Amino acid sequence: MGYLPRLLKQGFKGKIIGTAPTLAIAEIILKDSGKIQEEEAKKANAEQYTKHHPALAFYTVKDAEKTIKYFRD
Hints:
About 60% of the residues lie in helices and about 5% in strands. It is mainly α.
């Protein structure tokens, strides 16, 4: 599930099909992990403990929200 936002960035435009409960949980997890990744990238850049310059989140909350629009039950 955590790779779904990246798949969309790479051009995937199909439906993301799941049961209503699964998609509801996926929405929560994607938004939360996007926020955590944004915070970690910001911290890594501020504290300079990354080899990436700049460190970037694997995906953001905005990416997660775009992904959720493709959910279908």
